[in-house]
Amino acid sequence: MQTRSMTRTQNYTISNVESKRMVQEEFFVRKLSTGKSVTITVTTVFRWGSFMIELTNKQKEEIFSKQEVIVSDYEYELNEMSDGCSMDMYIEDEETLSEEEKKEIEETTEDLDDDKLEEEGWYGVDHRYTIVGPVELDLETE
Hints:
It is a single chain. The protein is of the alpha+beta class. The protein has one domain (9-139). The chain contains 3 helices and 7 strands. Strands 1, 2, 3, 4, 5, 6 and 7 form a 7-stranded antiparallel beta sheet that branches. The chain starts with 8 loop residues before the first strand and ends with a strand.
């Protein structure tokens, strides 16, 4: 008779230790008037943030050795992010776009607010949360 080992997970609160180390990347797609589909990434840096994250013991050990933790790679739930201190936008494959297409993107992304982008025809397709530098892990108690 074979037995399968079950990998036990526990819930932790993960947060950044150093200020300005919580990064949120939101990916948006829009079809331009030329018919070309384009993706932009809106990157916001927050001073502080925390998530509930589900980890095995092995994952917990690995996290402490990483220079950056991509929280989105784990089972997680956003607790909070506060004090957004910078926001940038990046255009995927920008070098393949015409000046007309770049101008259209610029005109429809003047306000990087999610609702305003949606009004301009941009659709959120994905997001990624990353903590850069050391992290703090606290075991969740029930």
